[in-house]
């Protein structure tokens, strides 16, 4: 069917109750890049114009724009637990629906897989696996507060000789990373049933206890979940190509373009040191820039308050210079912890431009798991269940292990690889993947 530039003629029938009807081709060209910059998307066969709304979207403007011109049904369901709240926004955006002769699924998406996945989601909802265990999250919150208090008490009681200095740094680093995992839960609205309470506690944890803006984190992280490992849509790939060359297709493309910002053929060697070092100034500078540009003044004030608080707590005990060493070394170790855990599930997987695959394939091709153990669960904030987390981002983390066998059965039925590995193997695979990508870049750079 040839592309059309306006609503289909069959949608111009009499009466307001007669909806306008559209074809997939008409929707596909409203991807935000054509004339007029229109952005349409489909949810349950209904067609919505989000061109203006994307700027006001509570989850961030870009995350909804990434689905412009596509079917967003499964992403919509995955991100929104409170459907009644979201429907208030949808009513004013509705412009029509798919014509009766149009399939419910885009031609490049696996119908049987999506049907089985939607049935699986209904099953887990009936099983109550989307409901949080408040006592579990209370213990998580309590343990990170204890760690944070311990980092100060060790210095206060024992002084700043080598052993208490290092012990305090271990407590501080561990408290900060565990706060990061907990605010991640809150950002996904998986701790409380109501989004409002998740957002409020997230502000307390990430703004006041970690010193980062909640709005900045959600803006980036929602995009990552919407289109994981999709270049120019997943912000986690922004290190390509300035610092690293990621994935075979992108590395070959970079090499053929004769671009060389770094010696990528050695990136598996400098990743260990450079990645955590680069993340620290990126977080510090980008958060300030984001808050000022988007006028998130409350976020900015709370971040400043965090920095004042930690200075008042530690500087009187150890002096400013010693505190700077204590603080930035802790941040470096935290950054290393975060980088290895967050990237072990993604860098070794497929990295490319958005291919508009179905929701399940998009997530499975970009994620893998790390075997379960009490330590792995705690060390990674349950992100060792990355597959389940990406398929059901609002699911409370304590239920990942319960849904994992069901997800694996779905993958087995449809011939999709369900990858799970040891923690050490996952770490080593990051370096292997970087080495492979660097070699693909070098080959294309020299001979492409």
UniProtKB/TrEMBL annotation:
The keyword Zinc does not apply. InterPro entries: Cyt_B5-like_heme/steroid-bd, Cyt_B5-like_heme/steroid_sf, FA_desaturase_dom, Fatty_acid_desaturase. Residues 19-99 form the Cytochrome b5 heme-binding domain. GO terms for biological process: unsaturated fatty acid biosynthetic process. Gene3D superfamilies: Cytochrome b5-like heme/steroid binding domain. One of its GO terms (molecular function) is oxidoreductase activity, acting on paired donors, with oxidation of a pair of donors resulting in the reduction of molecular oxygen to two molecules of water. GO terms for cellular component: membrane. Keywords: Fatty acid biosynthesis, Fatty acid metabolism, Lipid biosynthesis, Lipid metabolism, Membrane, Transmembrane, Transmembrane helix. PROSITE patterns: CYTOCHROME_B5_2. Pathway: Lipid metabolism; polyunsaturated fatty acid biosynthesis. Pfam families: Cyt-b5, FA_desaturase. The chain crosses the membrane at residues 128-147, 153-172, 270-292, 312-329. The keyword Hydrolase does not apply. This is Acyl-CoA (8-3)-desaturase-like.
């Amino acid at each position: 069917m040839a592309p059309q530039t306006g609503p289909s003629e069959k949608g111009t029938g009499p009466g307001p109750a007669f909806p306008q009807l559209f074809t997939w081709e008409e929707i596909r060209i409203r991807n935000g890049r054509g004339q007029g910059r229109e952005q349409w998307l489909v949810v349950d066969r209904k067609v919505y114009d989000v061109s203006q709304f994307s700027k006001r979207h509570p989850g961030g403007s870009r995350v909804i724009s990434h689905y412009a011109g596509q079917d967003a049904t499964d992403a919509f369901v995955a991100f929104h637990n409170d459907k009644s709240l979201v429907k208030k926004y949808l009513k004013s955006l509705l412009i029509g629906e798919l014509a009766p002769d149009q399939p419910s699924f885009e031609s490049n998406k696996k119908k049987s897989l999506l049907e089985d996945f939607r049935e699986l989601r209904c099953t887990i909802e009936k099983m109550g696996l989307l409901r949080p265990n408040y006592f579990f999250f209370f213990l998580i919150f309590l343990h990170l507060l204890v760690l944070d208090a311990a980092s100060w008490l060790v210095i206060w009681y024992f002084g700043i000789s080598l052993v208490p200095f290092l012990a305090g740094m271990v407590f501080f680093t561990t408290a900060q990373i565990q706060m990061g995992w907990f605010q991640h839960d809150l950002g996904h609205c998986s701790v409380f049933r109501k989004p409002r309470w998740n957002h409020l506690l997230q502000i307390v944890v990430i703004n006041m206890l970690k010193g980062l803006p909640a709005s900045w984190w959600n803006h980036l992280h929602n995009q990552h979940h919407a289109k994981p490992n999709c270049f120019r849509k997943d912000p986690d790939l922004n290190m390509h190509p300035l610092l690293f060359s990621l994935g075979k297709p992108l590395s070959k493309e970079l090499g053929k373009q004769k671009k060389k910002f770094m010696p990528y053929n050695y990136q598996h060697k400098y990743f260990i040191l450079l990645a955590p070092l680069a993340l620290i100034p990126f977080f510090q500078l980008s958060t300030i820039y984001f808050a000022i540009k988007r006028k998130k003044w409350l976020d900015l004030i709370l971040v400043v308050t965090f920095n004042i608080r930690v200075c008042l707590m530690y500087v009187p005990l150890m002096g400013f210079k010693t505190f700077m060493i204590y603080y930035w070394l802790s941040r470096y170790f935290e950054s290393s912890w975060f980088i290895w855990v967050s990237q072990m599930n993604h860098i070794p997987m497929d990295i490319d431009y958005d291919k508009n695959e179905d929701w399940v394939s998009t997530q499975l091709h970009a994620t893998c798991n790390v075997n379960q153990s009490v330590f792995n669960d705690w060390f990674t904030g349950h992100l060792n269940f990355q597959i389940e987390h990406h398929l059901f981002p609002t699911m409370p983390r304590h239920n990942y292990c319960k849904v994992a066998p069901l997800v694996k059965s779905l993958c087995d039925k449809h011939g999709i690889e369900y990858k799970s590995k040891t923690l050490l193997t996952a770490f080593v695979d990051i370096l292997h993947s970087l080495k492979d990508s660097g070699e693909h870049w070098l080959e294309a750079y020299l001979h492409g």
